[in-house]
Amino acid sequence: MRLSIIIPVFNEGKTVGKILKKVQDLKIANVEKEIIIVDDGSTDATQSEISNLKSQISNLKIFHHKINLGKGAAVSTGIKNSKGDYIIIQDADLEYDPSQIKDLVKPIQEGKAKVVYGTRLNRLPNLKRDEKTPLFLLHYLGNRFLSLITSLLYGQWITDMETCYKLFPRKAVEGMKLSAKRFDFEPEITAKLLKKGYKILEVPITTRPRGYDEGKKLNTIKDGSIAFWTLLKYRFID
Questions:
Q1: pLDDT of residue 129
Q2: Residue 193: C-alpha distances to residues 143, 156, 218 (Å)
Q3: pLDDT (0 to 100) of residue 233
Q4: Beta bridge partners of 117
Q5: Cα 32 to chain center, whole Å?
Q6: Cα distances (angstroms) measured from residue 180 to each of 31, 84, 158
Q7: Residue 204 backbone dihedrals phi, psi, to 5 degrees
Q8: Is the dihedral of CA 177, 181, 185, 187 positive or negative?
């Protein structure tokens, strides 16, 4: 099995080197890795950090956008240039630990699923850690709401539609028109995979949420509203 790990990056100079090393160190039995990093118009030290590690990381492909186009656009560039049997998305901000990718791959290898998502939210809110601030509690509630809407519209129970960890066969997205430029990539690809008849298996994962002072870019109200509209739109068109 060949796995394409797509890493979209925008101004993650402080963490991109660490995440590349973690992905490089990831070992999964009977899996060959292809690492695809897409620098989405970064203006900080991201590009130099990537260049410094290029010779140290095998099977690494690097692509650059001249200007910032958004996460969805960066992921689409990665998908178009991938060669793996399966594709997974890995953020560059260290919220998601690449060592957990093997837990998502396992059901694929065992023939139990074709699409696997890593869920952070198959639980009650953790008011002492992840959801200890009002803003992060709002993130939790907003994501659970969007996941509920996904479940109602598309007929499959999902707890974490917005998760970064989405593992799917490359053939599932071949010829798939992906229009999302920003964080609306998450609801768009979920909607289109479900409409194609793929069942999504969720595997519990843990994350280390970072704050806005550390570079978090998601806007709960704005991006949540766009995600809601995206789910409605693709239920009935395209």
A1: 75
A2: 19, 11, 23
A3: 93
A4: 166, 202
A5: 20
A6: 29, 22, 21
A7: -65, 135
A8: negative
SS3 66: coil
In the prediction, which pLDDT does 217 show?
56
Separation between Cα atoms, residue 6 and residue 47, nearest integer Å: 16
What is 108-156 written as a DSSP string? Answer: HHTTS-SEEEEES-SS---TTTTT-SHHHHHHHHHHHHHHHHHHHHHSS
Q: What does the pLDDT read at residue 213?
A: 53
Residue linked to tokens 């690494």: 60
- 2-236: CATH topology: Spore Coat Polysaccharide Biosynthesis Protein SpsA; Chain A (3.90.550)
Between the alpha carbon of residue 111 and those of residues 24, 86, 106, 130, the distances in Å are: 25, 13, 9, 33
Burial of 147 (0-12, 13-18, 19+ CB in 10 A): buried
The least confident of 27-31, 60-64, 148-152, 218-222 is 218-222
**What's the distance, Cα to Cα, between the start and end of the chain in Å?**
31
In Å, how far are 124, 142, 186, 216, 218 from 73, measured between CA atoms? 33, 23, 12, 18, 16
Measured CA distances, 156 to 30, 49, 88, 93, 221 (Å): 30, 41, 21, 30, 25
For residue 4, the cross-strand partners are 34, 87
Which backbone phi and psi does 66 adopt, to 5 degrees? -65, -30
What's the rounded Cα separation, in Å, for the pair 209 and 216? Answer: 9
Q: Is the dihedral of CA 164, 24, 35, 54 positive or negative?
A: positive
